[in-house]
Amino acid sequence: MTDTRNTSDENRSSDKARPMTDDIRAHFDDPAYLEKMYRRDKVAFRDSFLKLYPEWKGNLLAESWNERLRYEGEELNWGTSTELWLLLAASLLAGFLAKIPSIFGIDEEYFYQRNIGFIVFPILTAYFTWKNNLRQPRILFLFGTIAASLIFINVFPKTLKSDTLVLSGIHLILFLWSLLGLAFSGNNAFDLGRRLNFLRYNGEWVIMTGLILIAGGLMSAFTIGLFELIGIRIEKFYFDNVAVLGLAAAPIVATYLVSSNPQLVNKVSPAIARIFSPLVLIILVVYLIAIIGTGKNPYTDREFLIFFNLLLLAVIGIIFFSIAESAGKQKNRLTTGVLLGLSVITILINGIALSAILFRISEWGFTPNRTAVLGANLLILGNLVLVTIRLFRVAAGKTELSSVGKVISAYLPLYTLWTIIVTFIFPLIFQFK
């Protein structure tokens, strides 16, 4: 009896490494296990189950789960009292970390330049570590890496004028974001579906955080105005304390709301993607024509080249978000056409930026900034080419849009590798200059 139970536990443990669709199929007759899976990750479970539902149509258990997953409650799910206390503790911790410079008399520019990523990302990583019940080796790896990163960036030579410090600080945020993605993926980091869900979560997280900040801004203006009416000026105290706490807590509260209430933005996100993708495509076409008409030159204008690369990153984000939202849904020729057009235009923008960077390197040599931008542009170009080829196949009816999402998901580790190189190796190569 003991051996059978142990074997069952081992099988159950190994199931965590499967894609969720396979896990659901394997344990469809075990309602308790399905419930645990659902509570562990409601969004991924819902997407996976609804893909499998046509196979089980007519089955009583499948029908009940289908009704449950498609039902959208009118009230928010705030979770248990324990979860709310943890949310409050996490928000206060983020607020405390944001206030470290003023509490301990540390120079704000020095502190935030190095540590701003540690205010929120480790807390979100801890949340998904707990939510996904990660195994101990992965927990040790995640938080050991975070601790090593914290030490590295803070033993950086004490100078505020260093290109490698700025690059390391920026890419460290992206590296911490990658670790968050690893925690989000659970015990199966190789599941491409989980990686795509992570991109979808990021889009919904940005939307929810934005809504919270807008509401917080309105409440702040209202509060300050009320006190001003009775002759009390609280602006300095309010922005130094309450506003800082709110800014630090907003991403954490947004993550909790999105995870606990998938229905909150699961209709808003696709709508935003569908509205903004064609608008961005039109704007980019007009913008490129305007560049030709005005004779603006990214080859010699450094500020224009910087803006050009920021534009490239923004459009890449829109493409990835739109594909993450559209993957797995019914094929739409208009959506595919818009995404294909965006990808082609973005390759053109990338080509202009890349040629401008190569021109500047040939004229003035390698610097930390030029090398970092060159590597990032080459990396993005490779991803865009793969995405565009796959979108052509989708438009030709040879594959599904979900295959584009798989290409993006499979490419994500390369971005992580590049953040590691820029964050930890560039300072050594360029001697912290």
Automatic annotation (TrEMBL):
Residues 1-20 are annotated as: Disordered. It comes from the Bacteria. Keywords: Membrane, Transmembrane, Transmembrane helix. The chain crosses the membrane at residues 84-104, 111-130, 136-157, 164-185, 205-230, 237-259, 271-292, 304-324, 336-359, 371-392, 412-430. This is DUF4153 domain-containing protein. It comes from Ravibacter arvi.
